[in-house]
Structures are given as C-alpha cells and as structure tokens.
Amino acid sequence: MSVYRNRLLTPGPVELHPKALEALSRPQLHHRTDEARAFFQAAREGLKQAWNTEGEVLLLTGSGTLAMEALVLNLFAPGERVWVPVHGKFSERWAEIAESLGLEVVRKDLEWGRVVKPEMVEELSGPFHGALLTHSESSTGAQNDVRTLAQTFKSRFPNALVVADMVTSLLISPVALEAWGIDAAASGSQKGTMCPPGLGYAALSPRALERLKPRGYYMNLAKERKAQAEGESAWTPAINLVAAVAGVLGQVLPGLEEHLRLKARQTELLYRAGESVGLKPVPEVKSPATTCFYLPEGFRYAQVKEAFARRGATIIGGQGILKGKIFRISLMGYSDIYDAYAVAELMKDALQSLG
Amino acid sequence: MSVYRNRLLTPGPVELHPKALEALSRPQLHHRTDEARAFFQAAREGLKQAWNTEGEVLLLTGSGTLAMEALVLNLFAPGERVWVPVHGKFSERWAEIAESLGLEVVRKDLEWGRVVKPEMVEELSGPFHGALLTHSESSTGAQNDVRTLAQTFKSRFPNALVVADMVTSLLISPVALEAWGIDAAASGSQKGTMCPPGLGYAALSPRALERLKPRGYYMNLAKERKAQAEGESAWTPAINLVAAVAGVLGQVLPGLEEHLRLKARQTELLYRAGESVGLKPVPEVKSPATTCFYLPEGFRYAQVKEAFARRGATIIGGQGILKGKIFRISLMGYSDIYDAYAVAELMKDALQSLG
Q1: A207 in a labelled binding site
Q2: Which of B25, B64, B239 is closest, CB to CB, to A25?
Q3: CATH (domain of B288)
C-alpha cells in the first residue's frame, strides 16, 4: 500500500474525464438505435464546434494514425507532391504515411524540438498539391504556428490542401480549420477529449469535402460521410467511446476558453517547476500538451522514471532519436490547476531525490 | 418505468460480460507499461487458444472489417485470383474488399441463406491464389462447413491461402486454423468475446505468417507482429478493450467446450420457439450465432421490432436484399440457458401480440 495515489502523466492516454467513465460503465448499446445515433450526432457536432469548422468531423474506429492515413488517402492521389517538415516522431509519421501511399514527399528535416518557420515555406519551389503539418509535436513538446504556416503556404500554392496533425492540440490549444487556412486535421479520443484510445477523428473543411476522392475500403471517407450524416458509421463503431466523447464534450465545450487557459497555465507551471530545479526544456516553442525536459545530466531515463514511479506517477521518455535523452509529462487529462501544483511538487521531489 | 428489463439481442454488439464492464470501469492505463503488456499478452494467448492455432493473433484497433481488409492486403497482391462465394452481407464484404484492393475476384453467387457446398469447389478451374470464406454468415444465420470447404479447396489448389471470416463463430462454434486447413481468420471484440466494439482480431497460421507480404501503413501486419511480440502495438491500441478481452477470456476459456454447447443449445431453443409459433427459419444450415426468421406473413419489420421493444428487447432486421424480409435475434452475449428460455417466451409473446 503506497501513500501516493496513482497519477497518469503521459501525453495520451490520459486520466479519464468522469463523464467518460460514466459512459463506459453503462450496458452495451447497439449502434443502429436512436439512442446511439443521438450520441453519434452529439459527438460529431461537439467536435465540429471544437474544431471551429463549417465542414464536418468523421469519427473513425481506430487510432489517430488511422485518421491521418485516411486523410492522406482520400485527399491526395499517388504521385502528388506534398511538403512535409519533419521535426519529431509525429511529423515524421506524416512523411511515412505519404510515402507508403505513393505520394512524392518533399521533406524538410529540422532538429527535433525546433519549430517550422514561415521562411521555410518561402524557400519552396512548386508545384505542390499539399502540405502535411503538425500542430503540437508531442514527441518534443513543440508547438508550430500552423495558422501562419498554412496561410503562407496557401499564398504561394493556392490550390494546395493543408492537412494538420492536431492530435494533441484539439481541446488543448485554440484550433480552427477554415479561419486558419487548414483544410483537414486529425485527432484521437485519448488526448484532449479525455477518453480511452480507440477513436480517430478526421476533420474536413468544406473545401476538403469538395476535394474528397473516395478511396480504400475501411478508410473510405466518402462512405463514412454518407453513413455518419445519418448518425451511423460505415463499419461497426466503438459506440461506447462515441458516447463517452459526447459526454465529455457536453461538459468541456461550454467553458472551452477557460479550459484552454487552464491547459496553458498548467504547462507553464510545470515548465517553471522543472526549470527551478535546473532542467532544460526540449522545445523551441512550448505546446500546452506536453512538458518535455532533457534528462538531468548524469542520469538515465530509467532512474527518472523510477523516481516518479516511487511517487505513484507514470511518465514517459523520448521516442526515436530522443529516446534515452528526454522525459515527458502531461496534464492533458482530467485535472485542474491544483493538480498542476501537485505535479510540480512531485516533479521537484522526484528530481531532487536523484541528488 | 417498464416492468421489463432491457435485453440486447442483436448479433453484435452484445450484452457485455461482467469482466468486460469491470475492466472498462478502471482508471486509464498507459499501453507502454508492464501492466498493459501483461493484458496484451494474455489477450493474444487466449485468442490463440480460442482459435486453436500455433500461429498468432494480432489485435487491431478498429472493427472486424479492418481485420478482414488487413488480412487480404497483407496476404495477397493486386492481380491475384481469389474465389469468393457470396451468400449474404458479410460474404459479399469479402468480395468488395478484394475488389477494392485490386484482386481478381471469382464470385460464386448463391441465394442468401444458402450454404456453400464442396461441389462448388470441384467446379472451379484454376489457378487460384486463395479463397475468402465466411464461417457464420450473420446476415442470414447460416453456417458454412469451412473445414470441408478449406480442405477441398486446398486439395485442388495446394498453394492457395484460405482466409475465413470467423467474426461470429469464434467462441460461439468450434473453430480451428491449421487443423481445418484455414490459413487466416478475422473476428472482433463485440461478438463471442462479449466486449464492446473497437478491436478487430487477425489470426494467422504459421503458414500465413510465412507468406505475409507487409503492406499498408496502419494495416501493416508485419509491423504489428513485431510490436505485438513485445506486448505492444504499432499504433496506440484500444488498451481498455484489450484488458476487457483478457478478463473475459480468462473466464470463458477454462470451460470452453461447455460454453460452445450452451451457445448451440440456446440457438436450438430459440429456433424451436419460433417454429412453434409458425415462423420460418432463413438459413439452410443454422449458425449458433444468430437466429434468423422470415417476418410472419402480413407484417412489416417495424411491427415486429416494436413488439419486442415493448418487452424491453432490442432486435435487428435484415441487411441488403433481406432488409424488410427477416428479423434476427442472438444470445451471443453474456447469457445462460435460462436466458434462452426467457427470450423464447418473450419472442412467442411478442409474435402472438401481433395476432
């Protein structure tokens, strides 16, 4: 028996919203019933509002990666040329997906932790069919100004489509589609919506909807769109999660601005606490989704992880080339500002215990 | 307030096993932790045992359709020739998937409700790279003898791969891979495993594992296999469901033979009750997964559905060409033999109330 309570501080999955747990403890619902259709429509409408789009949001049973692949598959054809700045594990995923689907990928490799600059768009020579951007790069904790990037890209390549990974920015940072020049975006249930993993979200602006080229079978977004207009889905959906998402959105959306301010303040507080004990932040520009620090000099990740674990906290290390070099903590899940104070103290204790 | 309790009698999703609800009400787990890896391995081992295979079972976050598409994608190349007997909505799905992936589909269309006969294999002229069969065709309630079909097909085309939809036979009817000449099979969490929808299962015999051609990104089974060997997954998994599946399998597998006998007895009882009030069964050979009857003469599906609904029961109608012609009820979910007696009485009451 520990004197500490368990805290899940990973950048997804996250601590569940009580409305999610409530929905998940209900008896099984059949997806082709009026009750299920009402949940489906509520989740779709809520996500549309969260994304500030007049287009629509499709709920796919799968991970955020499925939603990313489905967007590339249905919005681009093999041989089309896309720009993909790579500065972490998730921006690299865009490049891998586009390559696997036969697109011509023009990669811009940056040091992991850095952000993409509008000047990098100015340097490009066309033509381009699209750009695949990453809003919050959870592997480094960096946040790109995708609004400026999208607008700069569109001013140079007006016919191109800009698609953004908003997996860890939806309901964490302000986001928008049309108003920002972003045509489509992806996210998933286990991040800002504070539900278990299992749903990917594919958001499409009216412009992206017009340009949809139905392709694939399970990932065919035109087929999904038709089914989801009726509150159903092309394939058996993770309907329990859909109900959970609807429940959480019903709580979060009425106070969204305050919620986003909370996420920003929590992350600021965690960075301040880490810096106060000598830690060095990884990102050039900080995302409110994940706090990323380089490991304190002379310590291995396993030691840092263990120091948190002794205090009941689950954190995560680096991915790809940052493996063994950084650690990451997140309060994307259900938490308030006082939880941030708690975690800040816990982090300081954990690090000071290492000496 | 109704005097009836709610009963979900659809052929998936189904009434949840209490071990599933128990797992789903726990706080969120991170998938890259020892606890999560233990659930992942337990679910994989349990499914391997359920499928009687020395190969392996991959858990995919998505529906059973995703697992079906992933199998076709990773086991066949475009242009390869496959035999697909079509006798319902789900066998037709195999044909659609194979066509969408560029395979040459040799279709054998049967009346919906009929089963595939070994003679139909004898009539084929090769070459064939594979056959896509359906064990339990839930849209008609028919069960194919996929064992005899696979063995007949293999005796004629020894190099071909036989892939079976076992979505509603796994843990409902006896199933096997190698011993039956079946190389790969698909199922999903919301059927015999009595969990919510959201996981597809892809079972691969040792022979199929040798023939795996890694393709796709989200559906790349070679990548999944590598990750799942370590108790993880290539993409963020629906880990809550994985834990639920592990919990249910731990309860069901030790008494599997008795469980399968129960499913057979339940269905027999429901057919007997329906026939006693003059209903005509749809399938030529009955699957224990779903009881399918033609609508009583002179009544519309909405009336039958309403008669069940008034007694708290959710049933489902026909799909595709059987829409408006049949109704289906299932006890695949958590239920015992006395529940079958209860549902039999409910069905008789519902139908007699129609006059």
Answers
A1: no
A2: B25
A3: 3.90.1150.10
